Amino acid sequence: MHDVSEMMVLDALRVVQDPDLHRDIVSLGFVKDIKICEGNLSFKIELTTPACPVKDLLKQQAYDAVMAIPGVTQVALEMTAQVRGTKTAPQDLLPGVRHVIAVASGKGGVGKSTVAVNLAVALSRTGAKVALMDADIYGPSLPLMMGVKQRPMMKETPEGAKMVPVMAHGILMMSLGFLLDDDKAVIWRGPMVAGTVRQLLSDVLWGEQDYLIVDLPPGTGDAPLSLAQLVPLSGVVIVMTPQQVAQDIANKSILMFRTVAEGSGKSIPILGVVENMSGSVFGTGGGETAAARLKVPFLGRIPLEQEVCAAGDAGQPIVLRSPDSAAAIAIKEIAGALASQVSIHQYEKDSAVITD
After folding, report:
1. Can you give the CATH number for the domain in which 29 is found?
2. How many CB atoms lie within 10 A of CB 228?
3. Residue 211 Cα to chain centre, angstroms
4. Cα separation of 293 and 170, whole Å?
5. Which of 290, 240, 277 is nearest to 106 (CA)?
């Protein structure tokens, strides 16, 4: 009869490596709540995101590792997740939000809003707390794509009256489209845009969120600049189509965020490039080429499918309406890759703080 100890369990689990962070799950502090009763063993593995794309692989590797311990006859392993973010202060604009992720593009017509909506829903479906903010001031389209059109309620708080986000498909969201009449155009100058972006951040009860996905207007104007200056961005996703001209425009967007980061002293990681509308009409491979040239991650490509547009017009994102379609599968894989990049950058940031 072999006596199983906690140290034996931890030593066995050191062979399991997180492929993104390149360290074993024990030294990363992922292993929790080890309980041993004779040959019965139970424990948890707490990952940095519920959207981890290799969750099942890590679970199998951990199970195999502990089952090989002499004396272990039965294993109960639970996979959990706790999204780790930068510590915030009550005076911050978004004290309860762990990660703000901007979705940007250098030009219109590339399906940026469609990508933002579906990424938010895909992350939410993994169990993460996700909110969605429409910062596309000139053409707010998220109410249509999420299938809601209502004015947000107001709630009195110690800081004054604030707007309560609208709930759609399990996601809290806010858009200027909820506040404007459909038949009125938005004609604003720079300072007004900056002020509106700030209000959508500070005057909304966002609460506790793992990820706040922000759909930016196309281009390199006031809205993306304001967002970068107002809140600590966990990173930016660049959406582009495969053509050469789209590569050149995506390059300008990335350079804009890098320039803002250098000028402000803030870190604004480019989390990666998404190639949208990939297929026979626009070609394929441009996004991957652009990512390699700019030395940023390539998160994946979404095939050109008519149903993606139809789903958005119906207020049912494709990952919900047709979860087994090629586009939905691609988006869910991209969401996992995005969550991995956020975790990598957060780990590097935490490690730098410890080192300092």
Report:
1. 3.30.300.130
2. 23
3. 6
4. 37
5. 240
Residue 270: inside a domain: yes
Asked if residue 105 and residue 65 are part of one domain, the reply reads: no
One digit per residue, the tens of pLDDT, for the chain of length 356 reads 578 999 999 999 999 999 999 999 999 999 999 999 988 999 999 999 999 999 999 999 999 999 999 999 999 999 999 998 876 655 578 889 999 999 998 777 889 999 999 999 999 999 999 999 998 877 788 999 999 988 889 999 888 889 999 999 999 999 888 877 665 555 445 445 667 788 888 889 999 999 999 998 876 666 677 777 778 889 999 999 988 777 778 788 888 888 777 766 777 899 999 999 988 677 888 889 889 988 999 999 999 999 998 999 999 999 999 999 999 999 999 999 999 999 999 999 888 765 54
115 shares a domain with 72: no
Alpha helices for the chain (secondary structure H): 6-13, 55-67, 112-125, 142-146, 190-202, 222-230, 244-264, 286-294, 306-313, 318-321, 326-355
Give yes or no: residues 145 and 277 share one domain: yes
pTM to 2 decimal places: 0.91
Any domain includes 1: no
Report how far residue 255's alpha carbon sits from residue 251's, in angstroms, rounded to the nearest whole number: 6
Closest of 301, 309, 310, 303 to residue 325, by C-alpha: 303
Please indicate, yes or no, whether residues 176 and 254 belong to a single structural domain of this protein: yes
Judgement on whether residues 27 and 106 belong to the same structural domain of the protein: no
